[in-house]
């Protein structure tokens, strides 16, 4: 059993303390992982609580009066009720209001009252005020004319801007999960300190597991004496999800087993991120790809550099382009298996509510930064990544999505940590700036087979997965039936049909293949295939990736 010690201040808390004690800021917008659990400084060993507990029992312990306000509970006195009551006696209406505008006005009056006491040389209390879910009090989506919202926003901004308040010992904390959800006059106020609360790192998870271990010995018995290993494996998950996992395992009298941890973590994260992302698991390597020897050699060089932590030449991102069915998703699985890193697939992060899409992206980015090394896969990138110029009727969402993703993709701090892989059969529809070097450094074209011999070899390779074996001698018999331009997707569908025919009609596999090829028609029209091939050739960063007969089709 590992010894418990009082938790040190988290890095974001140290930053906040420095800004306040230096006098740089007295208002703080805390955003990010604000709804998670955390290890709270309480007593000698700490306790697990929420952000409110962390602030009250840790950072705000020296304050004389601590207030909080949210729309559900109204104004609450968290600490220093006797001191606050002295001011209430001076009011004609000592009852505390619950409605947002009246509550914010009341808080403003109290802050100014304490500031005036200080200016008069009288004893003045040190005051802090928490506003959980601040985006509900001052939402970004109400940027038009609304007397009540505008009044609330201007007063809250004065808490940071008014010298009567900000030169006195008053500290205000606006808590919001996503910065984009908060009214921009508050979110972008230069007089307010913006403090991002990240997902817990391995050290923080380790401290929390050490705190939980004496109470949940059965759940953690498989990691007794090596909680550090479990902590590293759980990076990316919030402490709330980890605590739930430990408690549920303890209740079932089941130990968390190393062999089950990958599946457990995948389930935790997909539940926590509610359909925004998915994880692609892969045990394949680049050996599973048919052909593409030049491309595989290049990628293996990148993987080797990544493994040695030599990041100077590591690409920021890749673009996979080629006709429909050329195996772009399968390609990503093989690369991830070769590199041994998780693949996060962006799913339906767009939302119909104003501001929700941007908030979803903020949440996804927090996860990516917490995971450390990972691959981010964006399928159908021409549709998912937005456009620089917002389309009419989408309230500017497309443009904001484009801007946020473009900024994240070009963040050089992510080099060697996050690799973006975009996939599209229409790369011409992806904004040029998103495909430039520094965001996408390597563009890899994927093509269908170009000869009947290649088509037969592709069928042979995929058929083996279904335990169907076709000898090389079969090619001479069915050569004229094999299509010249066959994609891995089309070949897989063909092999599945061959398997079904062989099993249901009593034919041997070669006979079933011949029967299935008799009236076979490619799933993609030839003109569409040619168009998408030409696009892929033009996008390729290296013509060595392109078969000579295709490179010759494009005039440069």
Strand and helix map with partners:
Elements: H1 11-21, E1 27-32, E2 38-40, E3 47-49, H2 51-59, E4 65-70, E5 74-79, H3 81-88, H4 100-119, E6 127-131, H5 134-137, H6 147-161, H7 163-166, E7 170-176, H8 184-187, E8 192-197, H9 202-212, H10 227-233, H11 239-251, H12 261-272, E9 277-280, H13 293-307, E10 317-321, H14 328-339, E11 343-346, H15 356-371, E12 374-378, H16 381-384, H17 397-409, E13 418-424, E14 442-445, H18 452-463, H19 474-478, H20 488-505, H21 509-518, H22 526-539, H23 548-551
Helix pairs in contact: 4-6, 9-10, 15-17, 18-20, 20-21
Question: Describe it for me?
Answer:
This protein folds into 4 domains: 11-197, Rossmann fold; 203-269; 279-445, Rossmann fold; 452-518. It is α/β, with parallel strands linked by helices. The protein is elongated and about 100 Å long. The protein has helices at 11-21, 51-59, 81-88, 100-119, 134-137, 147-161, 163-166, 184-187, 202-212, 227-233, 239-251, 261-272, 293-307, 328-339, 356-371, 381-384, 397-409, 452-463, 474-478, 488-505, 509-518, 526-539, 548-551; strands spanning 27-32, 38-40, 47-49, 65-70, 74-79, 127-131, 170-176, 192-197, 277-280, 317-321, 343-346, 374-378, 418-424, 442-445.
Give Rg in angstroms: 30 Å
Overall geometric form = elongated
DSSP helical segment count: 23
Mean pLDDT: 87
Query: In the residues, how many domains can be counted?
Result: 4
Strand content: 5-15%
- Approximate helicity band: 40-55%
CATH class membership of the largest domain:
Alpha Beta
Largest sheet: 6 strands, mixed
Structural class: alpha/beta
First-last Cα distance: 68 Å
Flag low-confidence runs. none
Main-sheet strand order equals: 5-4-6-7-1-8
